[in-house]
Write a structure and sequence with these properties.
By secondary structure, the chain is an alpha/beta fold. The protein is built from eight helices and five strands.
């Protein structure tokens, strides 16, 4: 059993939903309840709609002045022992402000010299998506159309340890609104997922590693990206 950290575990939860009430926000709240049930935990939830972040430009990888909200996000993510994202799926992908968020954090998620080496050191990440489509649509298509956000986190050196899609998050055809409040099994599953995520974050905080099977997956993807960089960069340089 890994040693118990002397200080509380810190976790960051980011919500990309914009509606009130929001399915993504309610799922995040239940996830946070599960985290807090696991013991000494400090959790901060941020709704992306409240952040004042400019659209990504390459200048933000350099010496461009960064906004206060960006500095807040950076401090929060760097101090966190685990990070979770909750997002709706709009038109087969995540909202634009979420994609912009992912691009912006590349300024500290990648090294300054080459912007190709991840800096998150295996930190655990979780993704929860809520969409109006049925589960079969997620498995057949939408998993692929949303894959870019999780792959970016892996590229930044993070470990995606949990991913969930909540289907049919609409009251009816052509109607939008809160539905997960009527799904006790889903809400209970979110609490359990939060508790498991807290356990993973606790181990990561203790020794910088993940549980065995997750560590193996992390090693595999690290090797995959290294090989990809070695193969694709020389090819692209000759184009």
């Amino acid at each position: 059993m890994p040693p118990v950290p002397s200080s509380p575990i810190r976790l960051a939860v980011f919500v990309a939903g914009t509606n009130d009430p929001s399915n993504s926000d309610m799922l995040a709240d239940r996830f946070i309840e599960g985290i807090r049930s696991a013991g000494q935990m400090i959790v901060e939830k941020v709704r992306m709609r409240d952040l004042d972040l400019a659209h990504f430009t390459l200048a933000q990888y350099g010496d461009a002045r960064q906004e206060p909200d960006f500095l807040r996000v950076r401090a929060l993510m760097e101090a966190a022992d685990g990070v979770a994202f909750f997002s709706p799926v709009w038109n087969f992908s995540v909202p634009a402000h979420f994609k912009n968020f992912i691009d912006r954090i590349g300024a500290f998620g990648l090294d300054q010299a080459t912007h190709s080496k991840g800096q998150f050191r295996g930190k655990p990440f979780a993704f929860v998506f809520a969409g109006g489509a049925p589960m079969i649509a997620w498995k057949a298509l939408m998993y692929l159309t949303t894959l870019h956000v999780a792959e970016a986190i892996k590229y930044y050196g993070g470990s995606v340890v949990y991913r969930h899609f909540e289907p049919r998050c609409i009251p009816g055809r052509g109607r939008f609104g809160l539905v997960v409040d009527q799904r006790p099994a889903t809400l209970k599953a979110m609490e359990q997922a939060g508790k498991r995520f807290a356990s993973i974050a606790r181990q990561y905080a203790s020794n910088g590693s993940l549980p065995g099977s997750l560590r193996l997956w992390k090693w595999f993807f690290t090797q995959f990206y290294r090989i990809g960089n070695r193969v694709l960069y020389p090819i692209s340089a000759r184009q």
